[in-house]
Amino acid sequence: MKAPLHGKMMEVPLTVSSLLAHASRHFGTTEIVSKRIERDVHRYTYRDCEKRAKQLAQGLIALGVEAGDRVGTLAWNGYRHLEAYYGTTGFGAVCHTINPRLFPDQIAYIVNHADDRYVLFDITFAALVDVLAPQCPNVRGWIAMTDEAHMPRMSTAASSYEALLAQHDGDFEWPAIDERCASNLCYTSGTTGNPKGALYSHRSTVLHAYGASLPDAMGLSARDSVLPVVPMFHVNAWGIPHAAPLTGAKLVFPGKDLDGKSLYELIEAERITCTAGVPSVWLGLLRYVKENGVRFSTLDRVIVGGSALPPAMLRTFKDDFGVEAVHGWGMTEMSPLGTLSTLNCEQAQRSADEQRRLREKQGHVVYGVDMKTVGASGQALPWDGVTFGELYVRGPWIIDRYFRNDVSPLVDGWFPTGDVATIDNDGFMRIVDRSKDLIKSGGEWISSIDIENIAVAHPAVAEAACIACFHPKWTERPLLIVVKHPDLDLSRDDLLRFYEGKVVRWWIPDDVVFVDELPHTATGKLHKLKLRERFGDHILPPDQKVEQ
Ligand code: AMP
């Protein structure tokens, strides 16, 4: 065998710091705007950001943090959090973003499992830190992301972030780092069992940022003003804090106010062109713009993921506001981007209905991600848009192992996502359900997502969840749990009639329960486990005529 002929190209490592260094040099005056906890608006530039990230790196090194050590963050989307993203990873430490919406016991578990050296926190989380600190004895220090004047009163001996930065001048060269080294750590929300850590590398993070920026992904450019509403503590805000400096897009951070009015005002004031977040956030925004009869003057596209984008929401964005809702799918274990639903030339020539049907799906893969659906015996299923099976993925920004866990989650080199999906001959994937949320009625499957999507298309429905309920004959039957719009009337029978002609008869839920509020997980998804605990034994009306 002949020896392989290697290319003669430089081996420049793909490092996270290179993203900010690039933005600082080439888009040095491009703005980063943050709504602060203090409720004022903070503005500075990529150049300022890099300098302060370097000051933070110097500060952490002076505190004894070393390459490979984890530094936790408990923070909203804001410029100091961005500095933490780069001021830690830039010298080889690992930026561990912690979801503050989890239960304190779970957070303590995560901090201890990650073995965080320091934790940087927004002052809104001071009380939470007081609960956590006694449970996390290995954390050497808790650093409040504020100045001395705004230090909160706490039982924990916390120090000031600004005071730390003030001791350093930012005269610091980002060191060369092996691109395979860990850069960021993010735990899954762990609705079942303990949270598990996805430990990203510099290489995977930079490649993901490239992928996320592509025109048929988020399509970011130096002409964009991008608003990540998806939290920076949830899978690195889908990579936007990395993709924006890579492309030179202006970055706007919403802080902690994610209600419709606050978001609308920010979108208009900062001339946002692209934003990203979960459907529940857009419900609030759309309600606000409709109720107030206002329009978007610059918004071009909204990336919607984390949960299924209801078709009714896609239509409202497009037909009523001229805004493209781009459906995306991914997960923590995938950094998170997997698929997006944008159309190619030929697809864009098809009938309006056909285009809409494609856009409602979770979409095609981004280069770098490979996917397949598999059946019960592990065989690859056809891409016919009908046959569904578990979705498997692989690629350079998909986990190989969980952090500090030696058991490989892979099956023949593929990561099983736990999602059940179809793939059609356009290569468009559609999530049918989480495997554990599918409803098995008389041995046949019902997609809870499809049932929910139809419910939220009813004008009187604000939000809906569908779960399996025990049934003596069919084993499981769908139960719909609904939050009504406060000022609209809706009866159980009206809503069930709304399903007629939209699904086969046996998919129509057996009953509807109206509630004031639905529970959500720490990442904004419907908390199906809680709903099953509360309503799983709901007594279904006996007269239901199901014919399968
Ligand atoms: P997380 O790791 O918290 O981001 O959750 C990932 C899971 O969220 C996926 O495995 C899916 O079950 C779900 N998910 C993400 N995006 C979508 C989407 N567009 N449609 C349906 N489910 C989604």
CATH superfamily of the domain at 27-256: ANL, N-terminal domain
Strand content: 15-25%
- What is the number of helical segments per DSSP (H or I, 4+ residues)? 16
Lateral strand order in the biggest sheet: 2-1-11-10-12-13-14-15-16
What ligand species are in this complex?
A: adenosine monophosphate
**Residue-averaged pLDDT, rounded?**
95
Overview of this protein structure:
The chain has 548 residues and is of the alpha/beta class. Among the domains are: 27-256, Rossmann fold (3-Layer(aba) Sandwich), CATH 3.40.50.12780; 437-535, ANL, C-terminal domain (GMP Synthetase, Chain A, domain 3), CATH 3.30.300. 28% of the residues lie in helices and 24% in strands. A nine-stranded mixed beta sheet has the order 2-1-11-10-12-13-14-15-16, sandwiched between helices. Helix 7 packs across helix 9 (240-247). The N and C termini lie far apart (61 Å). The protein binds adenosine monophosphate (AMP). Adenosine monophosphate binds at residues 188-189, 235, 305-308, 327-329, 331-332, 336, 362, 417-419, 431, 434, 523.
Short note summarizing the structure:
The protein contains 16 helices and 25 strands. It has 548 residues and is an alpha/beta fold. It is globular, with a radius of gyration of 24 Å.
Question: How is this fold's topology laid out?
Answer:
Layout: H1 16-26, E1 31-35, E2 41-45, H2 46-62, E3 70-74, H3 79-89, E4 94-97, H4 104-114, E5 116-121, H5 126-132, E6 141-144, E7 158-160, H6 161-166, E8 182-187, E9 197-201, H7 202-213, E10 225-228, H8 235-238, H9 240-247, E11 250-253, H10 260-269, E12 274-277, H11 279-292, E13 301-304, H12 311-321, E14 324-330, E15 337-340, H13 352-360, E16 364-365, E17 370-374, E18 389-394, E19 415-423, E20 429-434, E21 439-441, E22 444-446, H14 448-457, E23 461-471, E24 475-484, H15 492-498, E25 511-514, H16 528-535
Parallel strand pairs: 1-11, 3-4, 3-5, 4-8, 5-6, 6-7, 10-11, 10-12, 12-13, 13-14, 24-25
Antiparallel strand pairs: 1-2, 8-9, 14-15, 15-16, 17-18, 18-19, 19-20, 21-22, 23-24
Helix pairs in contact: 1-2, 1-9, 2-3, 7-9, 10-11
The structure holds adenosine monophosphate (AMP).
Adenosine monophosphate is lined by residues 188-189, 235, 305-308, 327-329, 331-332, 336, 362, 417-419, 431, 434, 523.
InterPro entries: AMP-bd_C (IPR025110), AMP-bd_C_sf (IPR045851), AMP-binding_CS (IPR020845), AMP-dep_synth/lig_dom (IPR000873), ANL_N_sf (IPR042099)
Pfam families: AMP-binding (PF00501), AMP-binding_C (PF13193)
Keywords: Fatty acid metabolism, Ligase, Lipid metabolism, Plasmid
